[in-house]
Design a protein that fits this description.
Elements (H helix, E strand, L loop, with lengths): L1 H16 L3 H28 L1 H23 L4 H20 L3 H23 L4 H6 L7 H28 L2 H26 L4 H5 L1
Helix pairs in contact: 2-3, 2-8, 3-4, 4-5, 5-7, 7-8
Length: about 200
């Protein structure tokens, strides 16, 4: 009997910790909008080639930022930054036939975002909390833990991207990006589940 009750209790514990349906829908929407430009880029690379595919990445990144703005009714600063560096490095890639610049874009994005989050939180300001708490309400301690988790992930990915870019072919880098996109999504869901603490918990204590 205990063998039956124990899994049931464990499942109940997991379910009670899950975010609300509204929060889950917002997380899924955010992941979809954020990653669809790079997913399309990776999916069509072998059909379009690097230069046409890079141009498509520029267009879809701008489109992603616009959709985020219309949906959330606020200026998506990260999206604007992503669009800016994608257009700049994409233009250099296409104009001068230098594919390494679209690779460097990823290193620059991850490194700058990680540094921004780190400097902000060390200065007493949590950017993720201030920008996402209205959509995904959580305790500040949860946002702090999630922020540190993403800082580590951004720095790790920036380093790994440079290692792959410098030591392997562009085709190997494309394969690596295919796996890392999946890894980012899983990492986001796992860290969100582990550190998620709804604000209601604070009132219960």
């Amino acid at each position: 009997m205990l063998l039956i009750i124990s899994p049931i209790k464990m499942i109940r514990k997991i379910l009670t910790k899950l975010p609300s349906k509204k929060v889950i829908n917002h997380m899924l929407f955010s992941f979809t909008i954020e990653f669809f430009p790079i997913v399309i880029f990776l999916a069509l690379y072998h059909y379009l080639g690097i230069y046409k595919d890079t141009f498509l990445l520029m267009i879809t990144t701008i489109l992603s930022t616009y959709i985020t703005f219309k949906k959330q009714k606020r200026i998506p600063y990260v999206g604007l930054y992503t669009s800016l560096i994608t257009v700049i490095f994409g233009f250099i890639t296409i104009s001068y036939h230098l594919p390494k610049f679209i690779q460097i874009r990823d290193t620059l994005f991850d490194l700058s975002l990680g540094l921004t989050l780190l400097v902000a939180i060390l200065s007493g300001k949590n950017i993720l909390y201030e920008t996402l708490d209205q959509s995904i309400p959580m305790m500040k301690s949860a946002w702090r833990n999630i922020t540190y988790a993403w800082i580590a992930m951004y720095f790790f990915n920036a380093l790994l991207n440079e290692i792959i870019r410098r030591n392997f072919s562009f085709h190997v880098w494309i394969e690596y990006k295919s796996w890392i996109v999946f890894g980012f999504i899983v990492y986001g869901l796992v860290t969100g589940y582990i550190f998620y603490r709804p604000k209601e918990d604070h009132h219960k204590k």
